[in-house]
Design goal:
The chain is an alpha/beta fold. It has a domain of 210 residues: Vaccinia Virus protein VP39 (Rossmann fold). The chain contains eleven helices and seven strands. α1 crosses α11. The longest helix has 14 residues.
Length: 352
């Protein structure tokens, strides 16, 4: 299978259905783009970060940069689907795990308000796998809490932990999708089945295609210390390959007590035959596989965009190179979003 996401996907739909989408917490537009590729029309988008505005508007259309709590929900356009990629940090294993005690965890109440006002047929939540074990401020598991909240608004709930690598994304990235279907819609929603293509989505398959000639190669430089350590890490290796004398003291301390520190695997460098690990917003070589397998550098902006299955036609604009890494790392992989959108399109009649 060719990596169709690098150019215009062959199974991209024309917008021939009358189905409108609102995208909240849209970021640079990975989730929204997947739905657009499946034939849906984005009628409104919102995000708090002004750094995503130029990128989103160049590729997808207008976006309102504003705190969602300050948006007049009654003035939002009508929609059939509400997308809500709620900020994941409160629910992440790498985050503070405060869940709904954290402001970012509380924004889902704003989504509930939009649902009450607009009553779309479908709502789609996306979050990290830590969402499944996170609890609200009353100690209730978040999936149960969300199911109850959606039930009050007359939505039935379906959720699943999905690996993006099963859906044409060259990256092992586990995310939870929660789909709410309005009770009056006759649909016992089924998540899309995995696609048998993982063996063709390794690191090498992404790197072998030449980079676009119509844009500069943007690479976030490594720190001198990281660049020095990278010299000792082979493709497929990690910090475990670095000699003790080349490790900074903080990493020597961890290496000397691996059991206490739960055997972390810092500075992972995936080989060309491996599937890429999760692209993170931080883009740090210590805690993500951001090191190129054969060159002592981070992957370029375009390379990590490919790992997130953004097509090469999608341009990242208007902000610094490190912030481009962040916006890409925060995005929902486009092809995963597309297959979710396609499954919704196939199971729900939007002509009514």
């Amino acid at each position: 299978m060719a990596l169709s996401f690098l150019s215009k996907p062959k199974n991209q739909f024309s917008p021939d259905i009358n189905a409108k989408v609102i995208g909240l917490f849209a970021g640079c537009g990975g989730l929204d783009l997947g739905f657009k590729q499946a034939g849906f029309e984005i009628v409104y988008a919102n995000d708090f970060d002004p750094g995503v505005k130029e990128t989103y508007e160049f590729n997808l259309g207008p976006i309102e940069i504003n705190d969602i709590s300050l948006v007049d929900k009654s003035k939002l356009p009508d929609c059939d689907i509400l997308l809500a990629g709620i900020p994941c940090q409160p629910f992440s294993n790498a985050g503070n795990r405060k869940s709904t005690n954290d402001y970012r965890g509380n924004v889902f109440s704003e989504v509930m308000f939009v649902l009450r006002v607009k009553k779309p047929k479908v709502v789609v939540f996306e979050n990290v796998r830590g969402f499944l074990s996170s609890k609200d401020d009353h100690g209730e598991l978040m999936p149960i809490r969300l199911t109850k909240e959606l039930s009050k608004l007359k939505y039935k709930t379906f959720y699943k932990l999905m690996n993006a690598a099963d859906y044409e994304v060259p990256q092992n990235r586990h995310r939870v999708f929660i789909i709410g279907i309005r009770d009056d819609i006759d649909c016992n929603y089924q998540f899309p089945e995995p696609i048998e293509s993982i063996h063709e989505l390794d690191v090498g398959s992404v790197l072998k295609k030449p980079l676009p000639k119509d844009e500069p190669v943007e690479i976030w430089d490594l720190s001198p210390q990281s660049k020095e350590m990278a010299k000792y890490i082979p493709a497929g290796g990690s910090w475990k390959d670095i000699p003790d004398k080349r490790l900074p003291d903080r990493l020597k301390k961890i290496r000397n007590n691996l059991k206490f520190y739960h055997s972390p695997n810092f500075y992972r460098r995936f080989d060309s035959h491996e599937i890429m690990g999760t692209i993170t917003a931080a883009g740090t070589p210590e805690n993500s596989g951001i090191l190129h397998p054969f060159e002592d550098r981070r992957y370029s902006v375009r390379e990590i965009a490919r790992f997130q299955s953004f097509p090469d036609s999608f341009k990242f604009l208007g902000t610094s190179i490190p912030k481009k890494y962040k916006m890409i790392g925060n995005a929902v992989p486009v092809r995963l979003a597309f297959h979710i959108a396609l499954s919704i399109r196939e199971q729900i009649d939007f002509s009514e």
